[in-house]
Specification:
Elements: H1 11-27, H2 31-43, E1 47-50, H3 53-68, E2 73-75, E3 89-93, H4 100-111, E4 115-120, H5 126-130, E5 133-136, H6 161-182, H7 186-191
Parallel strand pairs: 1-2, 1-3, 3-4, 4-5
Helix pairs in contact: 1-6, 2-6, 3-6
Length: 197
């Protein structure tokens, strides 16, 4: 992004820049790592997902789509979330590399025999190192939203919003691949949507 004040730009221009940034990050995601996560999701008997703050909201959205695909998916913290064990998967988000709750949950899941996966922008972080699988989303988070060395530009989006925007889009793309792998249809997903709205 240029040194101009982004707020001075028309909304359409800001949207184009934000969309470009999201697309550029997703283009750098390792396809093999994405495929490994899809395989783990498809093979899991039960999936539990966790994230904090806005990352947590993206994880809840992903859990909802996994449920629409017919997976036994739960959000950690909900009263109906079951215990994890063998053949289960805990998927966490730790954009800046780690959160105390994420590390604690990874330890509990591993101790119970569950497989673990971490979505992060910092693959050398503590959470990623503790997980069996890592999906690296190379986007700005609050770990690196300050002035960058060498004149590298910051995202037009504030704080960790680029990472969270990438999460939203890539999770929907992973759902499309997982839907094909599982042989599900759009109608199958729609039939699993709640009617209590």
């Amino acid at each position: 992004m240029t040194s101009l004040n982004p707020a001075s730009l028309p909304l359409g221009t800001m949207a184009q820049e934000a969309s470009r940034e999201i697309a550029e990050v997703i283009a750098r995601v390792d396809e093999a790592a994405a495929d490994r996560l899809i395989e783990a999701l498809a093979a899991a008997k039960r999936v539990a997902l966790y994230g904090v703050g806005r990352e947590g909201l993206m994880m809840k959205g992903f859990a909802m789509r996994l449920f629409h695909l017919g997976l036994d998916a739960h959000v950690v913290g909900d009263m109906t979330t079951p215990a994890l064990g063998q053949r289960d998967l805990l998927l966490v988000s730790a954009g800046p590399g780690d959160f105390s709750t994420v590390s604690a949950l990874l330890g509990v899941a591993r101790g119970a025999g569950a497989k673990t996966a971490c979505v992060t922008a910092q693959p050398q972080g503590r959470a990623a190192k503790a997980a069996d699988l890592v999906l690296h989303l190379p986007a700005q988070t609050m770990a690196n939203d300050q002035a960058k060395a060498g004149g590298a530009s910051l995202s037009i989006l504030p704080m960790g919003s680029l990472y969270e925007g990438v999460q939203y889009v890539i999770f929907e793309l992973l759902i499309l691949r997982l839907r094909e792998k599982l042989g599900r249809s759009a109608d199958f997903m729609r039939a699993n949507h709640t009617n209590l709205e």
